[in-house]
Amino acid sequence: MPDEFIYDLGETQDNVSRRGSSRDLSLQPKKNIVLVSHGRPPWYGEDGQRICDAFVIGVAGGSASGKTHVAREIVRNLGSIPTVIILSQDSFYKYHNEEELALAHANMLDFDHPDALDMPLFASCLSDLKACKQSNIPVYSFAEHQRLKETKYLYGATIIIAEGIMALVDPALRALYDLKVFVQCDSDLMLARRIKRDVKERGRDVHGILDQYLRYVKPSYDNFVRPTATHADIIVPGSNNAVAIDLICTHIRSQLQERTNRFRQKMAIPHLYLTTGSGSGASTPPESRLEDLDLTVLPDTPQLKGIFTILRSKETSRQDFIFFVDRLSTILVEFALQLLPYVPKVVVTPVGVEAHGKKLGAQMVCGVSILRSGGALERGFRRVINDVPIGSLLVQSDATSGEPMLLQTMLPVCVRLRNLAQDSWVFLLDAQIGTGAAAFMSIRILLDHGVREDHIVFVTFLVARGGGVSVLRRAFPGVKIVCGAVDEIMKEGWLEGYKGEGNPEGKGRKCWVMQPGMGQIGDRYYL
């Protein structure tokens, strides 16, 4: 698989970012795997609401039957696909007390009974991921026979493969699967694989492995696991299963194709592409009036005109460009602070007199920049709000379709945890709103995490009145948008030197440029 970026759920995203290297799927030491290769395409419609769920596959079978191998082979054979998660049911073993721990270390605790697994938690996490929300996956240590206190944040999957011996036992889990697979394998082969795995990976002796197998594993397979094959849509052999995996991958590709949603072109210049009404009476909407967009625009002062004159000029040196971008971002964030809630506060001055004032009423405030150009506002943001956590979203255009693709999320803790997100205020930072595609996706991501729409403040240098901001406004009316200036025109064109989809003349991929604009702000700021 070309250009993949793989990490397992035993690592934090921070560690992965620092390491920055790719590894082959077959070398992964743990069953929980996230593959980020081609990003997450839009999963929502023009109204901002979710129109498709993640595609969920349940893979069941006996212990050491080859479930994880089948899951990895599905991923490998799919090729160029969006974000995929392989989620192991082994992470959802219940927390054990001291007595149960003693039995576990003596190989006397039954880990192969359905009651050993926290099925409601597994179903809850899987339901969140399927509904395009974030989830926090438990971490289980086989060496300690215990669920650890830490959890692993997970978000943004297009395909989820849930594998485990009891993956098809619970009706609540079966209801979540779009495709149910059972891996059938010879009992002798499963036992041989289990001995080899437990000796090598879990440090156990052969006598204990055999005793546990005869006491718990084999009876559980006969009583609970094998009967679930009747619920499967397809039964895959535990070895020599290339044909079955190819059939599964063909079905998955067709399902993903049906869920494809492309509307960036419609957003880019909405008065040319989008229609109002329905049926034969549909009509082309007029260009949005500035007053209808409900934008908070900086006062048009001589100082602001001078800053924008410098930033728009292609003759401006990089050093001057960085200086005035930082200056403008500071002014913008200071202006945007008025949109946060404030509550009355009484203080006593140094001369002993009470003074009535205001204090910030927001419990948590953070920033999220849309990379790369959104990073140009971070320095000004930090200057205005001291010690503020800042996260990032990597949203880039697909090389062929031009649609936004979510490649990575690095969000502050107050956004990753849903119980905190609903009380958090988020400053979303990007250099401009042109087509609005990246802004649209970023707002949808924050809403998926539980951030309230009216708690999002979008701070940007420029907004194109004729671009996607009108669609953005209709979809998310509660979001507050603060900008430095409003440009009138979005011009349709082609990227030179790129032979894109649907361009037999080789003119390149279609793009949309804001005029007069400030050029490629990220390139001018960082390069």
Automatic annotation (TrEMBL):
Could you list this entry's UniProt keywords, alphabetically sorted. ATP-binding, Kinase, Nucleotide-binding, Transferase
Return one GO MF term. Answer: uridine kinase activity
- Indicate the enzyme's highest-level EC class: transferase
Q: Biological process GO annotation list?
A: CTP salvage; UMP salvage
Q: Does the keyword Kinase apply?
A: yes
Q: Give the residue range of the signal peptide.
A: none
Q: In which pathway does it act?
A: Pyrimidine metabolism; CTP biosynthesis via salvage pathway; CTP from cytidine: step 1/3; Pyrimidine metabolism; UMP biosynthesis via salvage pathway; UMP from uridine: step 1/1
The record, for CDD domains, names:
PRTases_typeI (cd06223), UMPK (cd02023)
What residue stretches are annotated with the Phosphoribulokinase/uridine kinase domain? 56-238
Instruction: Please write the reaction equations for the catalytic activity of this protein.
Output: cytidine + ATP = CMP + ADP + H(+); uridine + ATP = UMP + ADP + H(+)
* Record-listed E.C. numbers: 2.7.1.48
Which positions fall inside the Phosphoribosyltransferase domain? 299-492
Describe the family membership recorded for this protein in Swiss-Prot or TrEMBL.
Belongs to the uridine kinase family.
NCBIfam families (alphabetical): PRK05480.1, udk
Q: What is this protein called?
A: Uridine kinase
| Organism of origin | Crucibulum laeve
